[in-house]
Amino acid sequence: MEYVERVLADLKAKNPNEPEFHQAATEILNGLKPVVAKHPEYEKAALLERFVEPERAVLFRVPWVDDNGTVHINKGYRVQFNSAIGPYKGGLRFHPSVNLSIIKFLGLEQILKNSLTGLPIGGGKGGSDFDPKGKSDNEIMRFCQSFMTELYRHIGQDTDVPAGDIGVGGREIGYLFGQYKRIRDEHVGVLTGRGLSYGGSLSRTEATGYGLVYMTEEALKCRGDSFKGKTVIVSGSGNVAIYATEKAQSLGAKVVAMYDSNGYVYDKNGIQIDVVKQIKEVERGRIKEYAARVKGAEYHEGCKGIWTIKCDIALPCATQNEIDKESAEILVKNGVKYVGEGANMPTTLEGIAVFQKAGVIFLPAKAANAGGVATSALEMAQSSGRLFWTFEEVDAKLKNIMINIYHNMDNAAKEYGCEGDYVAGANIAGFLKVAAAMMAQGIV
Ligand code: NDP
Ligand code: 2IT
């Protein structure tokens, strides 16, 4: 059996019941076929087998007590996937769907994403099946303190630096950091996405969404086009979705729809992002509220319908597998020209095939949403150097990084005979640096 097929078959046999991990590994390894053909030494060093096996996976119990005195137990995870090019780096996700398969898919993706940023960060991911929805601030705090009471022994500013993801934002990072500092007695850059008063970086909050739009803007520019006058759909209404919408609209686009896990809002006049920020960031409410507050806006129960709205550009910014084959076909039929993935793995493998066959410019997650973690690495640099850069400085660096990633994946695709296939291009460009580092460091 051919090398990639053999590694994939082995991975599925050894890691059954991990469909998201299989999906991410399939997408990545298929893209790497031309690389391993050119580098037979990789197979001799079992490089792919090592690449898909986490260096370490920590599973732990997170006990906590709710406001009524009831005891709850959640599962905690930290998968330290690859440290060849730098300390493990990647977010923590708090969502009831979290399991080992999801954390491993996110961790595997993170290795290549972090490599693409050009900064010295390895790949990791963690989280819990804890559901922050409907919990009081005190419950969130107690949960975060319990989570960190185990996690602290596995992380460190030069070892593993977690950050936010779904369900983990500024509030949670604050509680996690407070508990780490209390246990270790160290005020260091062990988490990113920190508040500005205790070591955070300007522009980290905006970075993932802004970065997604900067990359999409570059893809448009290279084709003599721009965001001006474009109709855009952004799914989700969390951190990534809000700042993708804000930046796309500032460049002249009209974002007409957003959703949360209950349903979507359609505003033909263009989403008023300040209203969404008030509902989501301040009140922690539901997107349904938007239609009650903004004249002319409609609310529809359920998420899938959002992809039936006609648009030029789709920016999925919520979660994995939100665009399946059927939704991709409807988007194509309605004339979508660009898809930029803000979320991690938001398009199924079948959905990607539909977009690519139709000639849609498809910007894959590990490249398109790398602005968040890139800015986390800039936060780490500021922490280590005891520096504080202005918003404009960080934002300019972010934009530069996103433009570089776009051209690196475009060039890698050309060089390896798959021009325009950015899925393969991103996998190849990200992998080459990790592979070189792993080869140089021996069999470890
Ligand atoms: P948030 O928790 O801020 O927002 C998540 C949004 O997605 C919410 O609107 C949420 O709705 C929605 N959502 C989550 N799960 C589902 C679901 N199963 N069906 C429908 N909607 C859902 O998270 P982020 O904005 O930080 O993350 C969004 C995506 O971007 C994730 O895939 C994450 O991995 C990725 N990402 C995040 C980065 C960051 O810096 N934050 C960096 C790179 C990627 P509801 O409130 O109803 O749950
Ligand atoms: O998926 C991701 O890249 C993130 N959730 C951000 C990770 C980070 O370390 O900033």
Find the CATH topology of the domain at 207-368: Rossmann fold
Mean pLDDT: 98
**Percent of residues in helical segments?**
40-55%
Q: Ligands in the structure?
A: NADPH dihydro-nicotinamide-adenine-dinucleotide phosphate, (2Z)-2-iminopentanedioic acid
Write the layout of secondary structure elements.
Elements: H1 3-14, H2 19-31, H3 33-38, H4 40-44, H5 47-51, E1 56-65, E2 71-82, E3 88-94, H6 100-116, E4 123-128, H7 137-151, E5 160-163, H8 170-184, H9 204-221, E6 231-235, H10 239-250, E7 254-259, E8 263-266, H11 273-282, H12 288-293, E9 298-301, E10 313-316, H13 325-333, E11 338-340, H14 349-357, E12 361-363, H15 365-368, H16 370-385, H17 391-415, H18 422-440
Parallel strand pairs: 3-4, 3-5, 6-7, 6-10, 10-11, 11-12
Antiparallel strand pairs: 1-2, 2-4, 7-8, 8-9
